[in-house]
Structures are given as structure tokens and as C-alpha cells.
Amino acid sequence: MRSYTSVAAWKYGLAKRLQLHLREKGSEMSVESMKPEVAGAAAMAGGAEVGNFRLFVLGAMAVAFVVTYLPTYIRLANGPWQTEQEGHGPLIMAGAAWLAWQQRGRLAQTLLRPAPIAGWVILIVSLLLMAVNRSQDILMIETATQIPVLLGCLLLIGGWPLARVFAFPLAFLIFSVPPPGWILDAFTVPLKAWVSDIVTNFLYGLGYPIAQNGVMIMIGSYELMVKDACSGMNSLFALSAIGIFYVYEFVKDSWIRKTLLILSIVPITITANLFRVLALVLGSYYFGVDNVEGLFHDMTGIALFVFALVLFFLLDNLLIAAGYLIRRATSASHGSPKQA
Predict the structure, then answer these.
(1) Is it the case that residue 263 has pLDDT exceeding 90?
(2) Which one from 134, 153, 230, 257 is the annotated catalytic residue?
């Protein structure tokens, strides 16, 4: 009986010592896991996994977007992008991509808060709208839907903070949307008549044998018609895109300078177009209509655009110089001693 009790007591003591040993080991492991080095490594590993997952989702969305809109881009390449009016479309998209790439510094400092409800609603509605307009061959709205589709993707990835980061690149894509014909006609027809009237009155004042009937200009023995390309609308879209791109990316210091540059786009384009029509009318008078059509006509279109850009950048330099002189005069007046 005594021996049995001794063995039982020995087994009980061994079990208690083993339990105590395991408890000490467990506490050491829990304390070890709470050390900053271990916690930091675990956090970094978790952050890397989350970052890799986000990159995967972003890449998958990019591939899906390209596949979805590839038929749209093919139609644009075979149609509007081959015209003088919409030939700047690919450049607009390249510029929007460059602007988005420039936001990578802000992206690293942005706290991502996905907005799945708003993102899915905008994405699904935009895709349905794109499908309907593609089936009805309405290229303008089909192209325009790429903007809300991209917005929906951004909301799914990072929410409204991420959408604000890429707000301007998304808005810049508006210039890649081919405008409907009725909007162009509403501005083109009055512009052609106004340009014809200005050029005719100017040359008549200089003594040239010239007359006008609407958009028809008769000079000497030649009769010319001011076409849609000479209204200035083609250059207006392209110059507006370049001007807004330049103001956003390179003009950082003055809202007055930004406003004046943006407001100057329309009058600069119209002024440059007046010189183009004037050159074409004078060229027809001195060299004949046959020598003016074709290459000379196309060259004046390129010269018009270059001349408008020169005027735009010249105005910007004048604004910079005026701002410098105003600041210098202001600082001098504040620093001069008061007279008794």
C-alpha cells in the first residue's frame, strides 16, 4: 500500500513539473512575439502581402480596361483620329497617362480607403452605358464612358482619396472625346461668317478688289469659300488641351496668371485663324487658287497652330515679366523710408 502511494505521488510531482515547464516556455514564446523586432517584421510581411494584392488587382483592372475599350480605340483610329479635327486624340491619352504617372509621389502619401458601393455602382452603370452606345454606334458617348469606368476602378482600389489624386488626369481625357456634329456646326458656321467678314473688310480697306457673300469671298477673278477647317474650331480643341495641360503642370505660383492664360486660348486661336484665312486669300489673289489648294493650304494649318502656340507662350512670358515688375515695385515701395 505504501509503495503504491509513493509511485502515485512521484507521478503527480512529475506531471506538475512538466506542466510548470510548459507554462514557462509558453510565456517566453508570447513575450518573444511581443518584441518590437518580431512585431515589425510581421507588420512588414503583412503590408507586403497587401501591397502585392493591390498591385495584382490594379494590373487585372488595367488589362480588363484595355480589352474592354480596344474596339473603341480601333474605331477611333480608323475614323476621327485620321481627321484634322480629332487627330490630337492619341496625344491627349498619352498626356493623361503622363499626368497620372506624375501623381506617384502623392499616391505614396495617400491613405487608401476603398469605396466598394460607389465604385461598383459607377462601374456597372458606366459599362452598361458603354455597351448600349457601342451597339447603337454612338462613338462620342462610348468614348466618354472610359472616364467614369476609370473612376469606378479607382474607387474600388482606394476610394475617394485615390480618386482626388487622379482627378485632373481623368478630367483631361474629356479632350479625347469626339464632339457631336451639331455642337461643331453651332460654332463653326458663325465663326466662318465672322472670319470672312473681318478679312474682307480689312482687305477692302487696303484697296483690294474684294467682296463677300456669307462665307464666299470674291477677290479679283477668283471666288473662295471659307471651309470648316478655316473656322478655327480644329485648332481651338487642340490648343485648349495644350494650354490647360501647360497651366496645370507648369504654372504653380499665381492664380491670376493661370486664369489669364486659360481665358486667352479662344482669342489667340481666333487671331491666328484670321491670319491663316488672310494668307490664303492673298495667296489666291497673287498666285491663283490652284496653287493655294493642297500643300499650301495644309502648311497654313500647321503654321496657324505654331503661331497660336507662339502667341500663348509669349503672353505667358509677358505675364511673368509683369508679375516680376509688380513684385519689385511693391517691395520697393514698402522698403522706402517715409518722407517727413
Answers:
(1) yes
(2) 230
